[in-house]
Amino acid sequence: MSKAMPGFKSGDQLSSRSVLIWRIVQAVVWCVGAGILTCLLFFPSLGILLFWNILIPVAPALFVTWPGVWRNVCPLATTNLLPRHLELSKRKRLSVIQSGKLNLVAVIALYVIIPLRHAVFNSSGPATGILIISMATIGILLGFVYEWKSAWCSGLCPVHPVEKLYGGNVIMSLPNAHCNQCRNCVVICPDSTHNVTPSSTPKTTYHQMSALLITGGLPGFVWGWFHVPDDATITTFQHFAGVYEMPLLGFIITLIIYTLLLNNILQRFQHNLTGIFAATAVSCYYWYRVPALFGFGKFADDGLLINLRNIIPAWSIDAIIIITTAFFFYWLVVRKPNNKSWVIRPQYAKRGSKGLQHTSIDFRRQAYLHTV
Question: N or C: which end of the chain has fewer CB within 10 A?
């Protein structure tokens, strides 16, 4: 059982007052997200600044330290779960195979979308807005059909693979602000599993491929991505495809290294290997992103938040990225796993209640798959 906030343990239910507070927080964050979306569509420069240069740079560090916060308040999650909260969802269950397929599609979608930032999204607020609207539409449609977080938040969302890679050793667990009962909608539940990683899943081919691609490929992909400049003037397919060359090269290199190491180390060290690759990916992100935010980037104004080049010395930026790198390797590699999950599992729904189609024996049998 994972350790959690003082006074909370698995099976505890939130009080009416706590639920109200979380709903207010979710509504506020949703409104902030809607405001950013509005800026992207109608005030593109401001929207791009708020979304790509403030919100997104904060996200990886939050996923490393406290992903439960984001899992509770993410605007897309709130939108996706609205039909479930309003009892409008058909509450269908995904099979383990279907869940694995969604996980694999999410990883592929992540690798397809991110390079397009250089050609489209980093320079076009409306395009970014349409991307967000498209994901919200898919999420809410899935919410009308499938139970709780199974299809979007723990399935097709392209951010979720990064959450699982980075969120393996969180600072503390939060109460679950969405699910009032656990209905075993996804096996295993990434929110309620302590020290979850991409490999903490049933051992289907789809789950294994997802774990391999995100863990092994992301460090090199991140490195390659930062070696491509933004170019909103791309007009030919050849130039358009060029935004993928460096990210894919880095992806292939680290994926090969990871695969060789994975096949030649003892199983008990595989969790450490995942931590090393996760720390490498997030450290590489901030190694390049921090300088770019403050005017010391590789490509002029790409990703610029505020230009401090003539205000602060370059060594101060170097100091920041060295500190962040040391922190992430300590947090994900050196620091002892603390057996905490992102959020606290609520009480299980009673057997036979609407939407709970697996018996506890069925659930234990499926959950066992990820350990064999």
Answer: C
- Cβ atoms within 10 Å, residue 346: 20
How distant is the alpha carbon of residue 343 from its chain centre?
A: 15
366 lies in some domain: yes
The range of the structural domain enclosing residue 317 comes to 16-371
Contact 151, 115 (CB under 8 A): no
Cα separation of 91 and 239, whole Å?
A: 44
| Residue 89 lies inside a defined structural domain of this protein | yes
Evaluated on CA atoms 263, 269, 270, 274, the torsion sign reads: negative
Judging by beta carbons within 10 Å of its beta carbon (0-12, 13-18, 19+), is residue 89 exposed, middle or buried? Answer: buried
Per-residue pLDDT of the chain (372 residues; tens, 9 = 90+): 444 555 455 555 677 888 899 999 999 999 999 999 999 999 999 999 999 999 999 999 999 999 999 999 999 999 999 999 899 999 999 999 999 999 999 999 999 999 999 999 999 999 999 999 999 999 999 999 999 999 999 999 999 999 999 999 999 999 999 988 888 888 889 999 999 999 887 779 999 999 999 999 999 999 999 999 998 787 777 778 889 999 999 999 999 999 999 998 877 788 899 999 999 999 999 999 999 999 999 998 899 999 999 999 999 999 999 999 999 999 999 999 888 999 999 888 876 555 454 444 344 444 444 444
Task: Let me know if residue 3 belongs to a domain.
Answer: no
Q: Provide the 10 A C-beta neighbour count for residue 342.
A: 28
Q: For residues 202 and 101, is the Cβ–Cβ distance under 8 A?
A: no
- Total Cβ atoms within 10 A of residue 288: 18
The one-letter amino acid code at 126 reads P
Closest C-alpha among 11, 99, 93 to residue 350 = 11
| Number of domains, the chain | 1
For residue 350, the 8-state DSSP code is: P
| Residue 185 covered by a domain | yes
Report d(CA 25, CA 27) in Å as an integer: 5
Q: Which residues contact 307 (CB under 8 A, 6 or more apart)?
A: 294, 295, 301
Cα-based torsion angle of the residue sequence 353, 76, 341, 258 in order, rounded to the nearest 10 degrees: 120
Q: Are 160 and 63 in contact (CB under 8 A)?
A: no
